Amino acid sequence: MSGKGTTANIIAALCSFFIPGLGQLLQGSWIKAIFMFAAAFVLWWILLGWIIHLWSVVDAAVFKASAQE
Question: What HEC string does 31-62 produce?
């Protein structure tokens, strides 16, 4: 069971800190990971990528696994 503050979420948040979307990729959210990576890449060209980058870190930190167990 993973929820806010678990070790897996902390590792995912650290990964997203370095590469936006990597934490979501580790958690299995492929579409969200691709979106965050692409959006951060595009927005960094106009110096607004930090918004997506920060969102990626926070989203990875508060991820809650669905009831697929």
Answer: HHHHHHHHHHHHHHCCCCHHHHHHHHHHHHHC
